[in-house]
Model the fold of this input.
Amino acid sequence: MIRLSFLSIAVVFIVGMPSHVQASIVNLTFSGTYKTVDLEEEVGAFNYSMTYDTTLDTNTESFATGADLSGLTTYHEWHGYSASGIIDLDFQFDGMEWLLSDHSGNVPREGVTEGLWFDVDLATGATPTLAWFKFNNSSSDLYLGNMYFDDENIGLGTGSTIVFSSDVTPSIRTNSLTITRSDPAPIPEPASVITWTLLGIVGCIATWWERRR
Done:
């Protein structure tokens, strides 16, 4: 019975250790309502979704608030991401669709790696409030977020714009872009699964031992 007690304590100790791998899959939704360029007439609501795997990201560019970004001071954090991390994409509006192959990387300043930009580190679980990336196809260009700068500072702005290739169709836009995040549940580590299995075995042995007494 003493051996069982020691085994039980060891198993419980292992169970108390961290048992989940840090989530690498990020589900992001970008929503809002497009209006005419003068913002007087509503055109329609949009809801774009993207699934990103941070382990596939090859962009290492990151700038803290107040950091130097090629000669300008950042208003907030900048975190760059490569398109290689996008594992699922659903960007459709009013019969138009933008595919992963339509993505065009943004370069905030000369010498900085192009990519998608957010104001948070996605690997930390934080939800972005600002973004900046674009998609270009034969009929239209889709812009999510924007970049702005003056003589001293640089930052990201909210909003979204669709610019049509045809001069006949006017652009549509919104100054309000809502970003939400809903990650899948973390996957248990193999060691955690083994630990819970051992705990079950210990319980069965303890029950059998008590019945024999």
Residues 22-185 form one domain. The first strand starts at residue 25 and ends at 36. The chain has two domains: 1-19+189-213, 22-185.
